[in-house]
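Hypothesis: this fold can be encoded by more than one sequence.
Test: take the structure tokens below, design a sequence, compare later.
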């Protein structure tokens, strides 16, 4: 058995790697769509500003992809090095989506290279078409990785006889019960993060007075992607929560800090666990039962249905879930503000407060994403394969795992600094004179709304 310190270090290392990589993975899904949308607008309108946006974003995409490839490779090694009990025992069951994801990654890399090299070397429409596989491969890569994670929540496609895995069915395992809602939830989240994160950069520029057509269009396109994804994500999140209630009742109990099974269970927001009770929470009577089943008097299982050693850390899961949901609705409200301005004025919002909030929307989307993964992963604990394999039994038994965690911290610090430095250098590249001077006649950002 691995020492507790090494088990914690292995979990922290995996959390750090996943938490860092997932942001880049989201950009790998949504950013290519933004690049191609800008290029398509340029072809359709014959406006060089759109083409300039696409060219500059493509360079940023190359940086994001390169750094993401490094962090993704680290994660691949960690799966085998840190968790041999998982991959050694269940590799034949769940190895298929990892293999397909590798193929999708190489397709994405190949076509990204073609797309970048072919600027000015292919006819415009052919160049645009060459970028479509980047989007498809990025979405496929996210889909197949998340199917593997979904299997860890709802493992199927095998039997265990005499302590050994038999009758493995990789396709059945890949299309497990949690796969539909978890993959859709993740892909929509990737579009939200991409849209709001890119838009927040241009919101800063607009607040600083850079109101040329380049910055307005770049902001408008990126924010539109996030604003479209936001209401979809709220609906998908509701569907996902209902699925969790059916498939993973203990995780739902942790999400809602429901300590005991209740008929007409309340919805509890916030609060602090003290002396076996949740205190200071905002409580909505019968709310959880109504949301889960549509019946305000239905019974929702609580955490007492499993022994204490098999319960996830309640407060971490509960607060992460509340933060994720709260930020989702804040982003939804900001998206509605954007949509109303576009409908009424056919222009960007004029209020400086909108852009201040848009600056925060990028980090808020990332925080919501990270909280969602905390709910997914920590809410499954102490199981790595729910109901079959404990995390403590899957970790590498070799002593000294904490050294790997400590050694990896400077690697991620370096990658973060290097990525930010290169992206800032790209952002500071001067705009062509004609674009920089093209400022439309509209109410300046900072005026009254």
């Amino acid at each position: 058995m691995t020492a507790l310190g090494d088990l914690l270090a292995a979990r922290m290392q995996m959390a750090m790697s996943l938490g860092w990589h997932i942001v880049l993975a989201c950009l790998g899904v949504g950013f290519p769509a933004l690049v191609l949308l800008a290029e398509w607008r340029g072809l359709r309108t014959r406006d060089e500003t759109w083409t300039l946006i696409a060219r500059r974003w493509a360079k940023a995409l190359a940086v994001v992809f390169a750094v993401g490839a490094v962090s993704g490779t680290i994660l691949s090694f960690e799966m085998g090095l840190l968790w041999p009990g998982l991959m050694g025992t269940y590799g034949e069951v769940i190895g298929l989506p990892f293999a397909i994801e590798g193929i999708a990654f190489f397709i994405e890399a190949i076509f990204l290279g073609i797309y970048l090299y072919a600027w000015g070397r292919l006819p415009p429409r052919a160049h645009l078409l060459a970028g479509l596989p980047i989007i498809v491969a990025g979405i496929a890569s996210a889909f197949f990785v998340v199917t593997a994670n979904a299997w860890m929540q709802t493992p199927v496609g095998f039997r265990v006889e005499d302590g050994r895995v038999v009758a493995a069915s990789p396709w059945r395992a890949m299309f497990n019960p949690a796969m539909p809602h978890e993959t859709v939830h993740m892909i929509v989240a990737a579009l939200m993060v991409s849209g709001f994160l890119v838009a927040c950069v241009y919101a800063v520029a607009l607040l600083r007075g850079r109101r040329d057509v380049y910055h307005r269009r770049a902001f408008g396109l990126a924010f539109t992607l996030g604003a479209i994804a936001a209401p979809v994500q709220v609906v998908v999140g509701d569907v996902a929560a209902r699925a969790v209630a059916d498939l993973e009742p203990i995780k739902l109990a942790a999400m809602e800090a429901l300590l005991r099974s209740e008929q007409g269970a309340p919805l509890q927001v916030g609060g602090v666990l003290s002396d076996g009770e949740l205190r200071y929470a905002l409580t909505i009577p019968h709310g959880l039962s109504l949301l889960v089943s549509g019946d305000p008097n239905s019974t929702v299982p609580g955490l007492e249905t499993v022994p204490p050693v098999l319960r996830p850390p309640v407060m971490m899961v509960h607060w992460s879930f509340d933060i994720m949901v709260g930020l989702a609705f804040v982003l939804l409200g900001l998206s509605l503000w954007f949509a109303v301005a576009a409908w009424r004025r056919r222009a960007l919002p004029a209020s400086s407060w909108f852009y201040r909030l848009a600056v925060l929307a990028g980090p808020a989307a990332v925080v919501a994403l990270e909280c969602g993964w905390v709910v997914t992963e920590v809410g499954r604990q102490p199981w790595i394969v729910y109901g079959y394999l404990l995390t403590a039994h899957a970790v590498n038994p070799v002593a000294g795992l904490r050294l790997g965690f400590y050694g990896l911290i400077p690697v991620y610090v370096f990658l973060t600094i290097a990525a930010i430095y290169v992206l800032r250098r790209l952002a500071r590249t001067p705009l062509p004179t004609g674009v920089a001077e093209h400022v439309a006649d509209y109410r300046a950002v900072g005026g009254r709304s």
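The longest helix spans residues 4-45. The chain has 14 helices and ten strands.
Hypothesis status: open.
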